[in-house]
Design goal:
302 residues, mainly alpha, Tetracycline Repressor, domain 2, 15 helices, 0% strand, globular
């Protein structure tokens, strides 16, 4: 459903930016490049990574596919979002559902075209990724556990595209990925608590809807406990993470704080704060990648 009165073009562009969550995509692009520079392609100079045209195409294709994923997710969740996020939904609906679908298909076609300039394997990879994003929005996100796990896997998939490109399969990569996967899964479950009212009204079978709030918080507590495993492995083994060890120490303290606060939370506003708390930990983790070789950053530009 769209807003009745015609809106100026800049309103519609701002609405589209809101639908595709451009700020999230920008953060993912930064994270992909930082991971490529300091973890995945650390044998290359920063200049070589930044000027790598195929890497640029992979990251561009990822961004377009993710934007399309946000659009189709918004398309299927319109009724639910009217309950959970009425103001944002009104902004998102400055553009019609028909326009959203048109942009969705255009972005997906562009993703495949761009991937074709990298390799046939890239085309297959992004075709499967696009299908996964659609199937999640259409069916899987309404299922308890399955929806949360799928959302987390889809969120880290663009990073797999980069490390496959660099043929970097070091153990430390998978440990980092496990840590990120656990954080993202916790965030997805907290979002379910935050969106409980709309999910219940639209019969989404999320964990809080099916099993209740107390059980959901127990699952969150268990996942927080699991995050200590990759954290301790990364901090106590010789993975040459430099000053990034300080991030993992801080994140441990923050997650313990989060765990205390989530058990005290009981309103949508409080769950929203917990959601933003987790986003801060994740974003801080992105920029903490710089700490791996902070003393060598300038030299690697040469």
């Amino acid at each position: 459903m769209s807003i009745g009165n015609p809106k100026p073009l800049h309103y519609k562009l701002f609405s589209l930016f809101s639908v595709v969550r451009g700020y999230n995509i920008l953060m993912i692009v930064i994270a992909q490049y930082l991971a490529a520079i300091f973890i995945l392609g650390k044998d290359y100079s920063i200049r070589e990574v930044l000027l790598n045209f195929h890497l640029f195409l992979i990251i561009l294709a990822s961004s377009l596919a993710i934007a399309a994923g946000y659009i189709i997710n918004s398309f299927y969740d319109t009724e639910k979002d009217y309950i959970n996020r009425p103001q944002k939904t009104m902004l998102d609906n400055y553009i019609s559902q028909k326009t959203k679908l048109s942009v969705y298909f255009i972005l997906n076609i562009l993703t495949i075209v761009i991937a074709s300039y990298v390799s046939f394997r890239a085309v297959v990879f992004f075709s499967l990724y696009i299908f996964g994003l659609w199937f999640y929005s259409h069916k899987l996100k309404k299922l308890p556990f399955v929806g949360n796990i799928t959302a987390s896997i889809l969120a880290i998939t663009p990073f797999f595209a980069v490390f496959i490109y660099y043929h970097n399969f070091d153990l430390v990569i998978f440990i980092h990925a496990t840590y990120l996967f656990l954080l993202l899964t916790i965030r997805e479950i907290v979002k379910d608590l935050e969106n409980l009212r709309g999910d219940f009204a639209q019969n989404y079978q999320t964990i809080p809807v099916v099993y209740g709030i107390r059980f959901t918080k127990k699952i969150i507590s268990l996942l927080v406990l699991f995050t200590t495993i990759p954290t301790l492995i990364l901090m106590t083994n010789n993975f040459n993470l430099g000053y990034m060890n300080w991030y993992f120490l801080l994140s441990f303290v923050l997650l313990v704080t989060f765990l205390i606060l989530i058990w005290q939370a009981g309103t949508k506003a409080q769950y929203n704060k917990m959601h933003n708390f987790l986003k801060f930990i994740i974003v801080a983790g992105v920029f903490s990648i710089l700490l791996i070789e902070i003393d060598m950053v300038i030299n690697r530009f040469l």
